[in-house]
Amino acid sequence: MDVVTGAAEDAAAANRSTGGTDRGPKQDRSRATRQRILSAALACLAEHGWAGSTVAVVCARAGVSRGAAQHHFGTREELFTAAVAHMAEEWQASVRERARALPGRGRDRTYAVVDMLVAVHTGPLFRAALHLWVAATDEPELRERVAALESRIGREAHRLAVEFLAADESVPGVRETVQATLDMARGLGLANLLSDDSARRAGIVRQWSRTLDAVLRPPDPAA
Amino acid sequence: MDVVTGAAEDAAAANRSTGGTDRGPKQDRSRATRQRILSAALACLAEHGWAGSTVAVVCARAGVSRGAAQHHFGTREELFTAAVAHMAEEWQASVRERARALPGRGRDRTYAVVDMLVAVHTGPLFRAALHLWVAATDEPELRERVAALESRIGREAHRLAVEFLAADESVPGVRETVQATLDMARGLGLANLLSDDSARRAGIVRQWSRTLDAVLRPPDPAA
DNA sequence: CGAAACAATCAACCGTGCATGCTTTTTTCC
DNA sequence: GGAAAAAAGCATGCACGGTTGATTGTTTCG
């Protein structure tokens, strides 16, 4: 469902940029160019931030001319609007990839899920998202797009966390605790921005997963 | 100690901007102008972000000319370097102010401390800091300054949280849990950037303060 | 051949640091 | 103590570099 929505938005953006009625690039090389530009846009965001990700910088990164970029995305705004949609796809792929190797159950599972969630939030994709997130506060056209992305990723992250943790949200407090876990992961992503925070982070992940496990699976009162 | 350090840095910045050997502005009106500029810089950061906080925008906000700003801060970099130091002072004043009305002890206390920490991280000062934090990743001159500020505020926040919570850090896991609480508060600050997140937040604060209380004050095994 | 895709160039605008000018306050000199 | 000079503080304007969207030119594909 989310993947389908993303593709529809992507096609709409393609229509806008070419002014045509067809469904995106016609040539394979054009599709490849477009992909390269979008990937470069996200990479530049992560490395250079919003202000540093000028169209020229993105083009240099993608190895294409400004004219080529302009063919696909008439304005900087359109470029990053498409990049937002691209980011949603990349995010989902990233989480799916990481979820593959989770242990079966118990405290090891809880630890691994927390570790994974934190890893997602300390990676380059979150970094790019963070830059967009912060920049969107003063970019009216971008704001709505980014707010929608944030909302969607947030809901999806929550859904996946509940699923991976096998958490029962009908138990009072579980829902909020899972949410707190994600907010903490975001905070850790922030803390990793200017310097490597991994040592401190490891201790926090270990402890949080213990606390989380205790909340999700309280000791049996009958035992 | 931190206040003294802040003042020394402030004086050093003043020396730099005037090229003199004296200790900052000589006239009261000059001190007032400087203060206005710095306050405006922080307010603009919170509202417009880094890219939007041009010297012209800050001056308009402060109600001074660009020449006046330039007298105090020769470059944009110097302006925001001083703003960083100013931010540290404002942050401390803010926390002190909020700490005044904390209840005495128990779960109410824990809740109030968590609520306060989260409130600090969802206010305009944190918002300004966040913009600086993110922008600093691609501003070499600013990076070091902001990293130092982040480090200092982080340590101070931790120290105060431990103090206000009357937490015993020799108990295994308490230190990490307090740190995680702060990281969670930062994540909640982030979540409040593009839209009002207060409803979700209230639930998380309530629930987490319960969990935190249970961690800090586990049930007496002898009872 | 025309459309699509890409490349290169242009003009307008903005932000910055620098320079010059004006006003207010402090210091120096008699 | 008062006038003049100097310093401090503030105001205005300029030149430059970078970014952007628009425009024109070239290459590739169907």
Automatic annotation (TrEMBL), chains A, B:
Sorted UniProt keywords: DNA-binding
Pfam families assigned to the protein according to its UniProt record, in alphabetical order: TetR_N
GO molecular function terms listed in the Swiss-Prot or TrEMBL record: DNA-binding transcription factor activity; transcription cis-regulatory region binding
Domain HTH tetR-type: start-end pairs: 31-91
Coiled coil: none
Name of the protein this chain belongs to: Transcriptional regulator, TetR family
Domain of life: Bacteria
SUPFAM superfamilies cross-referenced by the UniProt entry: Homeodomain-like
Species per Swiss-Prot/TrEMBL record: Actinacidiphila yanglinensis
UniProt-listed InterPro entries: Homeodomain-like_sf, HTH-type_TetR-like_transc_reg, HTH_TetR
